[in-house]
Amino acid sequence: MLAFKKFTDNLFSKKTLRYVFTTHFWGPVSNFGIPVAAVLDLKKDPELISGPMTGSLIVYSLVFMRYSLAVTPQNYLLFGCHFVNELAQLAQGFRYVKFRSSTKPEKEEVQVAAVEPSK
Questions:
Q1: Band of residue 30 on the pLDDT scale cut at 50, 70, 90
Q2: For the chain, is the Cβ count within 10 Å smaller at the N or the C terminus?
Q3: Shortest CA distance to 68 belongs to which of 12, 114, 28?
């Protein structure tokens, strides 16, 4: 019971409440929509993955992971958001490369068959 009281006292302290009502907190919380969507997209058909967009999001998350540690005070919540997004986007990137490399020969065969005149 003492641990619970200590936890609630800390949770509702002025310092914690002051932090919760800042953009240092709400910016990363609202930004978590990106990695949540990326994780949910891992179940979708890999044909829908955009390679350029996935590449852009990989770079974006790397930049903002660095930025989150460069600001004062360091924003670990923002770092966590972009770390999760980085992992999800890398997984999407691997799915994209695997799908494109496995389906490319089939598409070439179809195009060759379509170009050859029928006898």
A1: confident
A2: C
A3: 28
